[in-house]
Amino acid sequence: MNDPRIATFKDKKSLKDLWRLCFNTDSDSFISWFFKNRFIPRYCVLIEEEGKVLCALHSLPVHLNIRDKIIDSVIIAGVGTHPDFRGQGYMGKVFRYYMNYISSMGIVLTNLTPEYTPTYISLGHLPATNSGHLTIDRTTKTKMPDSIKDTDLTSGISSIYSCYSLFSKQYSGIVSRSYADFRFKLGDYLADSAKCIAYIKDDILKGYCIYYDTPKLLHAEEFVFTSPEAVNPMVYGLMSKAYGKKLHIKTPPDVKIEIKNANFEIKPQASCGVANAPSLLSSICGTKDFTVLIKDKNVLSNNGTFDFSGCPTEKEAQLTINAEHLCQWLNGYISLKELHEKNLVSVLDLNVLDELDGLLPIKKCFIVDEY
Questions:
Q1: Helices (H) and strands (E) in the chain, counts
Q2: What digits encode the pLDDT tens for the residues 156-213?
Q3: Which of 156, 157, 166, 314 pairs as cysteine with 151 (C-beta 3.0–4.6 A)?
Q4: What is the C-alpha to C-alpha distance for residues 31 and 290, in angstroms, rounded to an integer?
Q5: What count of other Cβ atoms lies within 10 Å of the Cβ of residue 29?
Q6: Taking residues 122-150, what's their average pLDDT?
Q7: Which residues neighbour 364 within 8 Å (Cβ) at sequence distance 6 or greater?
């Protein structure tokens, strides 16, 4: 098996062909958009043999908001192995090479939405955000609320962006989008013919939802609001659009929806990994008062004993934890005490658990983006 390498623009056609083979439900228009606007060779790793790309990982640079700190990160947009070469270890080799490579670039966190979560657990990626899922198997006729308006994703970008910016401040693990980032994200949606409704009151947009309308299913991908009053009207608006079809709405996990005959459940969404654990400690904690021994079988430079400012130390470690569980805790997804109860962290002094959980309490964790 050849070693992985960083992609170049010369690989674009081969990578596009592999993407089409691995992700065959993606539309031609989206694939064309992605490779025209989202293909960044520096953030793509591949393995080839005899000139044929067998496995590739694509990612995009982003900034994640972790506990109100902006962290240099990437979203892994897709990992694919040619069907004839699956189950031979190509993906694991690409992934581990990639994690060490981006660590050397100064990237701190990775984020992905896996189709098969256990595949990524062995690669140091565990759930770090949840999302809500509202489903109605067959939507009945519903009146469109007066406050809900069809909104153009191009001309309405300014108001939509303002809404997202305010909404995103309440969550840990979410993408902190600049205006330019937001324009690109809407481009992703438009490439697949997405549509948008908005809740507008007193001429102010207080919520919006970006959705895909297909013959049998209306799927709402981005459900965002700055006021709880927008929630139920937007759901009713989507129900009106989905008459006679199945309706699925992905929401923040803490949303309050009062709709009869709908099923609502919370599921893990994005998995997060640590490319640079010392930098993560420095950014989130920034104190020398505590010490931790980090273990990581994927990123070599994450291993060692550090203080909470990210500096290596000779002091005895108060905590011993794997990098993936450190990521969950620092993001605010799970408490240190709960990790200890599950035997996923060891401590010298149990009092440290309460002290550190007091400094870094549980947060609301959510991310809209899947790539």
A1: 11, 19
A2: 999 999 999 999 999 999 999 999 999 999 999 999 999 999 999 999 999 999 999 9
A3: 156
A4: 47
A5: 12
A6: 96
A7: 170, 171, 172, 252, 253, 254, 332
Per residue in 90-101, pLDDT (tens digit) is 999 999 999 999
53/82 Cα distance (integer angstroms): 8
Number of residues written out for the chain: 371
Query: pLDDT-derived band of residue 261, with 50, 70 and 90 as boundaries?
Result: confident
Per-residue pLDDT, 169 = 97
Question: Can you name the residues that pair with 263 across neighbouring β-strands?
Answer: 135
Q: How confident is the model at residue 118 (pLDDT cuts 50, 70, 90)?
A: confident
Strands (E), the chain: 5-6, 44-49, 52-66, 69-81, 109-112, 126-127, 130-136, 148-150, 174-175, 195-201, 204-213, 217-225, 246-251, 263-268, 271-274, 291-295, 304-307, 319-322, 345-347
pTM of the model: 0.95
Beta bridge partners, 247, equal 136, 218
Q: Measured between alpha carbons, how far is 353 from 337 in angstroms, rounded to an integer?
A: 6
In the chain, the amino acid numbered 207 is G
Strand 52-66 to 69-81 pairing: antiparallel
Looking at this protein, which amino acid is placed at residue 159?
A: S
Closest CA to 139 of 257, 209, 218, 41: 218
Asked if 198 and 157 touch (Cβ cutoff 8 Å), the reply is: no
DSSP 3-state assignment of 71? strand
Crossing angle (nearest 10°) for helices 157-168 and 179-191? 110
Instruction: Work out the pLDDT band at 80, boundaries 50, 70, 90.
Output: very high
Q: What is the token pair recorded at 59?
A: 């990612």
121 token code pair: 């657990």
Are the C-beta atoms of 269 and 367 separated by less than 8 Å?
yes
> Using CA of residue 43, residue 48, residue 52, residue 56, what is the dihedral sign?
negative
Alpha-carbon distance of 132 to 181, in angstroms, equals: 24
DSSP 13-44: HHHHHHHHHH-TTS-HHHHHHHHHHT--GGGE
